[in-house]
Design goal:
Length: 326
């Protein structure tokens, strides 16, 4: 299942004026409003505070109304809390201010909450029965897709939105534009964390949403499974550090989790060893183990080193001990 990550934004605009984005939102030359949190979204509590460089708001009589209903009034009531509606549902905040000198000011803010979902998937290998999510490793390809949710402002076809992408806080103009709702990039080295951000707007910029997601590189893994001639690999149970050989022979398959998908079929190298001595196998990721002719009991350490020949940091190793006989 794809991991769904949601972060939300809002739009605040002066009625019949251009929308303003940022921490401080101007609503007049004499006073302005500051919204917190910076990016409120659907059904979220929001605080609006009045500030001014020329008016003493602490001594002014302030009235707050939401969609035509007075919610708060009083001298020095410079802060107001309310809750946004569903995505795309407009909330009109009307504020009137009367200064101690009798000057009257009033403005209306239009709040339109919106959100954009970010879904990501990585092109790394997992065996077919694996139900988990493929994870990123150094040098792997990741595709991030943006899904705008603008309520009544939404457009059925996501290609009708304009997308602006960032990678590690750097603009990606070549991958931004109308209809470009996905962004593909290759991850960097070990322990690297990539931050992908997007800003989505409709054509008239009446509503805009932003989101970002952090994606951290993991390390490729080698996991061992018993491999039966007729049934195939036993993916239900992985081989641990100690394995008991119950019959005379067993095949062990190594699955290279999270390596990049091979393109030519020869990107991977597998080097097996028994008790430190390298051995050759018929299949690169499968080793056959047999008891000796005298059926003597004992132990051997099986080691495997694997690497992607075209991706410097894609390598892994693992080992287990096998018991022969009783």
């Amino acid at each position: 299942m794809r991991k769904k990550i949601i972060k939300i934004l809002f739009l605040v605009a002066i009625v019949s004026a251009t929308a303003f984005f940022g921490r401080a939102l101007a609503i007049g030359e004499d006073f302005f409003a500051e919204v917190s949190p910076k990016f409120p979204g659907p059904n979220m509590p929001v605080n609006v505070s009045m500030k001014s460089y020329s008016i003493d708001v602490d001594r002014s009589y302030i009235t707050w109304s939401v969609n035509g209903t007075v919610k708060l009034s009083g001298r020095g009531e410079k802060a107001f809390n309310f809750k946004t509606g569903d995505a795309g549902k407009e909330t009109d905040i009307f504020v009137s201010l009367k200064t101690e000198k009798g000057l009257k000011l009033n403005k209306t803010l239009k709040v339109i909450p919106a959100e954009v979902d970010l879904l990501w998937e990585v092109k790394t290998y997992t065996p077919a029965p694996y139900k988990g999510k493929a994870m990123p490793v150094p040098g792997s390809l990741i595709t991030v897709t943006a899904i705008p949710r603008f309520g009544k402002y939404s457009i059925t076809n996501p290609s009708n939105f304009v997308y602006y992408w960032k990678l590690s806080h750097k603009n990606q103009p070549d991958y931004s534009g109308t209809g470009k709702n996905s962004f593909t990039f290759r991850t960097a080295g070990p322990f690297n964390e990539s931050t992908v951000g997007v800003k989505v707007s409709n054509y008239n910029k009446k509503i805009t949403a932003e989101n970002s997601v952090k994606i951290k590189n993991l390390e490729p893994k080698l996991i061992f499974y018993e491999d039966y001639p007729l049934e195939g690999p036993s993916y239900n149970t992985a081989i641990g550090k100690m394995f008991q050989l119950k019959g005379d022979e067993v095949s062990v398959r190594a699955e290279p989790f999270f390596f990049s998908f091979p393109k030519k079929g020869k990107e991977f190298s597998f080097n097996w060893a028994i008790n430190g001595k390298k051995i050759k196998t018929e299949k690169p990721n499968v080793v056959n183990l047999r008891v000796n002719k005298n059926r003597e009991s004992g132990q051997s350490t099986i080691t495997l080193n694997a690497k992607n020949l075209f991706r410097e940091f894609q390598f892994a190793n693992n080992n287990f001990m096998v018991n022969f006989g009783q």
